[in-house]
Fold:
Amino acid sequence: MKFEKLQEFREQDAKHLAKVQDILTQKDAAQAEVRELKAQYEMKLRQSVEKGIDAGAELDALSDRIDAAEKVYRRKEREYTVSSTLKVGNVTPEELSRSWREEFMPAFKKAKVDPAAKSLLAAKLAYIDAFMAYRGAINELKAEQTAAIWALHPTDGRGKYAYSFPDCDFHRAEDSNKYYIKDDDLRFLAREQAPLSIQYVKRGEK
Structure:
């Protein structure tokens, strides 16, 4: 699922930014024209003074062009200032926020988060049930183991047969790490990473 209102916001923002950039380009071009005309005016004025030539008509024409160019520049500068701070379009920040709270987030939660959370809880309950069933089986086996040992050694449960009745609980860390959920697993899950304890376990493995 995609937050379509965000896409609308980005598209209108991109169009507005392009418009602002276009006005900035026009403003810079108008400023450059003013500078160029002023440079021409200064050069023509200097030449007329140095050579004693009457360039009044040309200077007046340049002065008029400078005034016109400055007028355009001031207008473009104002347009740029206004357009830079103006937010246009149907999707305002407030509308984007409202759409998130009232439309997208609730729909996303119902479609994806709630089912995932339901599965997570089911998995947690299944783990608890499986853990208790495993420990119950081991405890049942150990009760039978104890009875057998004490039957052979009724005085203290010790003797040459005491170690002839092994159990099948997890005695190696690699076994308990594989089947139990431990602190290290939770630390990896908190970082949204697969725990190392199951890195060699294949899905469906018995």
